[in-house]
Write a structure and sequence with these properties.
Layout (H helix, E strand, L loop, with lengths): L2 H6 L15 E3 L6 E7 L13 E9 L1 E6 L2 E6 L3 E5 L4 E5 L3 E9 L3
Antiparallel strand pairs: 1-2, 2-8, 3-6, 3-8, 4-5, 4-7
Protein name: Cupin domain-containing protein
Pfam families: Cupin_2 (PF07883)
InterPro entries: Cupin_2 (IPR013096), RmlC-like_jellyroll (IPR014710), RmlC_Cupin_sf (IPR011051)
């Protein structure tokens, strides 16, 4: 993207509460992919990968356990985790939880 392209990128604004009816909602169209993820306590997403992405997970509410490969990270509201999408990912809610995930194209 050139400096000119960056200047012409449309500014978008959303309220996350607009997506409460959709537990796994795309917040914006296009890149970087931005997802609001809501999970009930004990609910999880099956293990998967995003090999072309670097991912940032910001827990907004509750506690989320993020399994990355063989490691597990307990994340509480207000915590942010950045990781490589090439590894196996499996989030699970310890309590009712809401997170915002940004899946950016890898830069390498």
């Amino acid at each position: 993207m050139t400096d000119t392209d960056q200047l012409t990128t449309r500014t978008e604004r959303r309220r996350l509460d607009e997506f409460e009816e959709t537990p796994h909602a795309n917040v914006f169209d296009g890149e970087p992919r931005t997802v609001r993820l809501e999970l009930a306590a004990g609910e999880g997403v099956p293990a998967h990968r995003h090999p072309e992405r670097t991912i940032v997970c910001h827990v907004l509410e509750g506690t989320l356990e993020m399994r990355l490969g063989d490691e597990k990270y307990a994340l509480e509201a207000g915590e942010v985790l950045r990781f490589d999408g090439r590894q196996e990912i499996a989030p699970e809610a310890r309590t009712d939880a809401t997170a915002l995930l940004v899946l950016a194209p890898r830069g390498d």
